[in-house]
Write a structure and sequence with these properties.
Elements (H helix, E strand, L loop, with lengths): L1 H5 L4 H32 L5 H22 L4 H25 L3 E8 L5 H8 L5 E7 L2 E11 L3 H11 L4 E7 L9 H4 L17
Antiparallel strand pairs: 1-3, 1-4, 2-3
Helix pairs in contact: 2-3, 2-4, 5-6
Length: 202
């Protein structure tokens, strides 16, 4: 740590403040990347997942190396654990912010036939409606595939026009390029759009 000596940093500040802070930040970074990597692996993103894994392990090695060199410094343990905890939270929040991937939404509506699907279509969602029968009689079974970032708009539309509707949401690993959603037609391009293209179904 000659750099700290050249800056005139005392041994106490280095051991009890700066070193734990660096370990915390390193652990925060590698766990955040690890959380995102798991998401990418689950979605079959073969290009970016290995890259994230490479950077993640490099940071982890640097952090664990500092911990092993300072086993008598309990503050380093706290920084390690704190970075791990915050990294999980940061990874989840970042993944939600990016909102990557596709979702399939299944909606069961007991309203007048075609009513809810009409409102969804007006919002730009591509829907498929099937006449079905539930425990209380005729229902509409509505399917739509959307980008995750459009889920809030879809939920808002459903609650507004059919508060009693039941719906379920599942991840989609791949879909054809016939996916139709407000985000696709809005002209807004996500910063990450090029990294997460919609893949054609095989």
């Amino acid at each position: 740590m000659e750099i700290w000596d050249s800056l005139g940093v005392s041994e106490e500040v280095k051991n009890w403040v700066l070193l734990p802070l660096l370990i915390f930040l390193a652990r925060l970074s590698d766990v955040t990347l690890g959380t995102l990597r798991i998401v990418f692996v689950a979605r079959g993103r073969k290009k970016i997942a290995p890259l994230l894994g490479f950077v993640e392990v490099l940071i982890w090695l640097a952090a664990i190396g500092q911990v092993m060199q300072n086993l008598n410094n309990f503050v380093c343990y706290i920084a390690w654990a704190g970075g791990f905890a915050m990294g999980n939270l940061a990874g989840i929040l970042l993944e939600e912010k990016i909102a990557m991937g596709l979702l399939v939404v299944r909606i069961i509506s007991a309203q007048q036939p075609g009513n809810l699907s009409h409102h969804l279509h007006e919002q730009g969602f591509g829907v498929t409606r099937v006449d079905a029968h539930g425990i209380n009689g005729r229902v509409d079974l509505i399917f739509t595939i959307i980008r995750r970032k459009d889920l809030n708009l879809l939920e808002k539309t459903v609650r507004m026009h059919d508060p009693d509707a039941f719906y379920s949401v599942e991840d989609v690993r791949s879909a054809s390029d016939m996916v139709y959603s407000p985000q696709k037609n809005s002209g807004n391009t996500s910063l990450f759009a090029g990294l997460f293209p919609i893949r054609k179904a095989k």
